[in-house]
Structure formats: structure tokens, C-alpha cells
Amino acid sequence: MEIPMTEDDAVDYSMQGQEMSLTKLLIIDAIFYHLQSVSAYCTMGCMSPVSQSVANTLKRALLVWASILYFGNPVTNSGIVGIMMVVSGVFLYNHVRRIYQS
How far apart are CA 38 and CA 58, in angstroms? Predict the structure, then answer.
């Protein structure tokens, strides 16, 4: 079943003068992806693979919290426990690493 629509009922989904072509958006995305890859390789040169993995895990947990704060999504108890486990694991890893480095 189709609903007839007149020009008066049409909704304008454009960005109101802020339109960017798909090609421009893909180029911007490719540049940022390349910069992220280069920064990841530089970071890997400065730290061990385990430290890199721990830092990546912490980054993901912080991104989850940032998205929760920005978008206002509800947080379940298991989500809170999971993020607390990630953060406490990172702190515990750093503490043990400092002890055994000495």
C-alpha cells in the first residue's frame, strides 16, 4: 500500500546548505583512517604489545562512557560492571608492571 504524497508533505532531509558529496566524505574518512593507522604504528614502537592491547581496551571502555554521556543511553548493571572490570584491570596491570620492572 502506497501513501500518496504531495510536494507540501515532502520532508527535506538535506543538511541545509552544508551538503558534502560522498566522495569528499570518503576522502576525509580515508585521511583520518590513515592517520589513526600511523599513530597506532608509532605507539606500537614505543610500548610492548601487551601494553598496547591494554591501552586499546581502556580506549574502548572510555569511548563507551563518552557515547553514554553524549547520547544519554541508559546503562545496564552488567555494562557498569564490565566497564569497571576494564578500568580496574588496566590499573592492576600497570601496578604489577611497575612492581616487576624494578
Answer: 19
